[in-house]
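[Amino acid chain]
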Amino acid sequence: MQKNVPLEFIYQVFSLIIAVIIIHGIYVSIIRPGARDVLEQQAMEINSNPNYVPERSTYVVIRDFEQEACFVLMVWAFSLMGYKAWRTREERIMMSKDLVPVGDGISILPEDTREYSRPIQALTDNEQSYLVPRVLLSALDRFRSTRNIQDVSTTVRAICESETDRLDSELALVRYIAWAIPSIGFLGTVRGIGQALGQAHQAVQGNIAGVTQSLGVAFNSTFVALLISIVVMFLLHQLQQSQEKLVLDAEAFCDKRLIQNLKS
């Protein structure tokens, strides 16, 4: 397991760098030029037609730096959750393999545990780091040393509980991102309101264009951040649910395929 920690950290760093490059490239080449064209067109329409009501444009809504930061964090969170989902899928594939080939009516004695451990020990180091091989190997070793089926059941339950805690702790970074996204949106709100207050004297003189634009920054940043946060939190809960179900299924798998066939 220790060998996977640096690899996952490198994945997190590079996924963040790639997210920044992709989102910033889209903003520089598409979003901000499009928003500038829309604002210029709306200004021309307002000057020519006092009754003109400008329509909300997606380019204008998401053009500011706070929205860009929120999209970067969203893509980063998607990449992290995608890695966790892929890992969960690999765990389920491992569960479908016949790691303990026990036929109907055959019991496993303490003397047989070495033979049943060999298929698991023949797996690669990466495959042995998955939950089901770890639980099965620990259960067989425990049964060989104690010859007590209750101790084996306790060992399986303890490993599954620790795995639940580990998976939950690994989602801490995604939870932080889900918290940071609306926080950045609120920062945009504060910045927009501050700019609007700084231009209050212009509104008193009858020029409300600057105040309106600054308030637009405030509301747009909050709107985009909360919308992204809803999507990220939904996917996070789905991922957490799939991981919890994986641990429960792994415990049931070990009970059905191993513990029920043990005979002391």
Q: What stands out?
A: The CA atoms of residues 8 and 26 lie 27 Å apart. The mean pLDDT is 86. The chain has one domain: 71-261. Residues 209-257 form the longest helix (49 residues).
